[in-house]
Amino acid sequence: MAPRKLKAHRQGCWIEATGSDFLRLRFRWRLPTATGLHNFSESTTLGDTPENRSVLSKQAAIIGA
Known about the structure:
The protein is of the alpha+beta class. It is about 25% helix and about 40% strand. It contains 1 helix and 3 strands.
């Protein structure tokens, strides 16, 4: 029997556009009192433009670290 491959848990932060063309930060985080990863999101009032994505990418890198 072949050994099982371990799934990599995605613990980072990424940028998504909402349905109304605003940007939000999405991330998964492990809570100390619960098991597994939980999904979180932070909405912004920034529109979906390349300039705003570059601003949020710096914050996403900090949150993802």
